Amino acid sequence: MQHGTTNVLPLTIKPETMGLSVYHMAYLGILATASPLPVAPATASILQSNSIRSVVSQIVWREGKLEITANGPLRFRQAAFHAPERYVVDLLDAEISTQLPNVMTLPVNDGSVQQVRVAFHPETVSLRIVLDLAQATVCQIEQLSAGQQLSIKARHSIISQLIGPPVPDLIGPPVLELIGPPAPELIGPPVLDLIGPPAPELIGPPATPSQPWPDHLQVVERLQLRHTNKETLLEIQAAAPLLVWLQQDLTAARLTIRVPHAALLCQPPLPGGAVRRFTLRREPEVWALTLDLAEKLYVFSTESQEAGRLLRLRISPQTISASDRPLVIVDAGHGGYDPGAIGIGGRQESQLVLQVAERLRLALAEKGIAAVLTRTIDAEISLAERLALIGRLPTLALISLHCNSSPFPEVSGIETYFRQPNSQLLAKTILGRLVQASGSSDRGVRQGQLFVLQHEEVPSSLVELGFLSNAKEEARLADPDYQVLLARAIANGILDFLDQQPLGKTLGSRNRSLPRKS
């Protein structure tokens, strides 16, 4: 960062899992974790460093900010600590003037800042400055006079205005970022008792290939809700390309948007349309915005604009009427934190099966069969919630879509699974149609104790559409035309199964003819 400009707290993050509880705060908002501050014993090589040292001659609280003055450029690290709230600045290669004591306390009591503590550590040639905060507060640091002066101003954070219950302390490594040229590791023990007991290892969902950790602070500038008679639109505007994690709760009609390593410059909008209530809360490393919805079933879609800085989430109700029977539940496997199998070319199972699921819904609609998708976006949904839909809807059958993987790249083909005896025929007819239409290898019908297939009354089958570990099959599975071919084959397999059922014996029995389209 250039001297004479306004600097803010660190904007980078790495999810190592050792260290202390610490928050980073930036602009007006949110806290997150990043790479740990190294702490090592003093060494002769560092103590004999020829680094030019700046001498701090003044530390004073004046007009709502802390001013630090030295005779040379100041290099510093900074962090925000939680419970209790503290903001810490370590001045590196800095000495304290003989006119100032090595340890001192400045009473402040201005509402946000209670006091300022200062301690010089001669062994590390570093000066630690601690602002003890009265509440969740954002501290902004500005470097002036060719770097020889620092100004720290504290602002009240939106954190205390957030809706929802408190969340446990952020768990993870401390986050400190060096400002200026590279410096040797900060050495020696902490100067003051600032940090508290060691924190347990990082908790929460792991970063997976489908959920990379953002390499920049995600500054959310706007949350806006619009709604019409047909849909509700939520817009999330960020200062840079935005990455979010989605989790859908089918039982509670709830969608949670998690924004990792984020700063929020805005409040959630007032609810309306499909959204009954917003809840904003902090979780380990993440801010979570939960939408409680008015209905049980929705079709969600997302689109990204402005080079990824604007995310639009569209929400429209998925209504089921008596004329929609019979009804098939189409389950696109995995999603959200769980990408499923990763192809040899990097394609993700969760995204490919979602595309096939939507095409299967359309193929079934052509044949007069309504379909409900367990997910319509890349969101995490528990297996129990997927299965619970059967109890809430007049379900004719459940089809769960997946892609396979093998350590042997030459392995290929399609296979289907069933669990209950009444589902074996469904698995067989779907496999027959798929092999016939695709020309892929027939890997057979298999019985397995799969959770999503456990319903005893509703015929259910899990379909492995092909192997992502096979380069040729991965490419085919990503081809829209091939996805349509698979979807129509599965739909015909379902029709084949229905044709072999005694009239009225199938749950949600058909009371109208089903046109067959090959």
Structure description:
The protein has 518 residues and is of the alpha+beta class. The protein contains six helices and 29 strands. It has a six-stranded mixed β-sheet, with no helix packed on it. A six-stranded mixed β-sheet has the order 24-23-26-29-27-28, sandwiched between helices. The protein has a five-stranded antiparallel β-sheet with strand order 6-7-11-10-9, with no helix packed on it. A hairpin with a 4-residue loop joins strand 16 (245-249) and strand 17. Helix 2 packs across helix 6 and helix 4 (424-438) packs antiparallel against helix 6. It is elongated.
Whole-number radius of gyration? 29 Å
How much helix, percentage-wise, in residues? 10-25%
Structural class by SSE content: alpha+beta
User: Please, how many helices?
Assistant: 6
Low-confidence parts lasting 5 or more residues at pLDDT below 50?
1-50, 157-210, 503-518
Strand content bin: 35-45%
